[in-house]
């Protein structure tokens, strides 16, 4: 299998709703393995297919948690049911997220504390589990990618202004920008 380049904010596939997976075959299994390899090389806790330039509704994850759910897996054609998201101002220590497609940046964002996740595994078998806390945050973050959103698109006004300044200074927002996990310097310093 192989590690693939990670797309950076501005690549059209990141800003477009991904298509449903309709065939569970060897090609899909290869794609999912490439996603695991890329996520691992990038030291990520999740990776959505659009982040490697593939407009399909798939994400992988790996995160140690206390929920009765897998700590590593793939969700294909996911559906999420969320608890209410607090209207409180995001905490700059507790609610900070980063994203492989907005490398080296971190901003606070409020998320739901609970998510029920349903979808399919790589063989087409139905899966369902619940996620809480940071695990729920990861599920929401990856799911957003499949609808064409990055977490930076959901920041409150204060943090959105800081994001826009960073985006401008980094000259992001144009197609064709990528970074290669395992080859390029780790943007998060892992």
Question: Strands, helices and their partners?
Answer:
Blueprint: E1 6-7, H1 26-41, E2 46-48, E3 58-62, E4 72-82, E5 96-99, E6 102-108, E7 114-120, E8 126-132, H2 133-146, H3 157-170, E9 178-179
Antiparallel strand pairs: 1-9, 2-3, 3-4, 4-7, 5-6, 7-8
Name the descriptors.
23% helix, 190 residues, alpha+beta, 3 helices
Question: Would you mind describing this structure in some detail?
Answer:
The structure is a single chain. With 190 residues, the protein is α+β, with helices and mostly antiparallel strands. It has helices at residues 26-41, 133-146, 157-170, and strands at residues 6-7, 46-48, 58-62, 72-82, 96-99, 102-108, 114-120, 126-132, 178-179. The strands form three sheets. The chain has a five-stranded antiparallel β-sheet with strand order 2-3-4-7-8, with helices on both faces. The chain is globular. The two termini are 23 Å apart.
Distance between the termini: 23 Å
Shape summary: globular
Oligomer designation: single chain
Q: What class would the helix/strand composition place it in?
A: alpha+beta
The low-confidence runs, each spanning 5 or more residues with pLDDT under 50, are: none
Order of strands across the main sheet: 2-3-4-7-8
Strand content: 25-35%
Average pLDDT: 96
Q: Specify Rg, calculated over alpha carbons.
A: 16 Å
Output the number of helix runs.
3
Order of helices and strands: EHEEEEEEEHHE
**Secondary structure: number of strands:** 9
Q: Which sheet architecture does the biggest sheet show?
A: 5 strands, antiparallel
- Report the helical percentage: 10-25%
């Amino acid at each position: 299998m192989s590690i693939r380049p990670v797309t950076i904010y501005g690549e059209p596939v990141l800003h477009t709703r991904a298509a449903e997976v309709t065939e569970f075959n060897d090609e899909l299994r290869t794609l999912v393995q490439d996603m695991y390899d890329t996520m691992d090389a990038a030291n990520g806790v999740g990776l959505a297919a659009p982040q490697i330039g593939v407009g399909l509704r798939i994400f992988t994850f790996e995160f140690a948690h206390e929920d009765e759910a897998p700590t590593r897996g793939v969700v294909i054609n996911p559906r999420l049911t969320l608890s209410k998201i607090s209207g409180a101002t995001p905490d700059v220590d507790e609610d900070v997220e980063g994203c492989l497609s907005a490398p080296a940046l971190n901003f606070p964002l409020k998320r739901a504390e609970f998510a029920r996740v349903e979808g399919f595994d790589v063989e087409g078998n139905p899966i369902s589990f619940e996620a809480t806390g940071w695990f729920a945050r990861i599920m929401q973050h990856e799911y957003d990618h499949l609808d064409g959103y990055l977490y930076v698109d959901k920041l409150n006004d204060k943090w959105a202004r800081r994001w826009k300044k960073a985006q401008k200074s980094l000259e992001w927002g144009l197609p064709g920008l990528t970074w290669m996990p395992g080859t390029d310097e780790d943007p998060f310093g892992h």
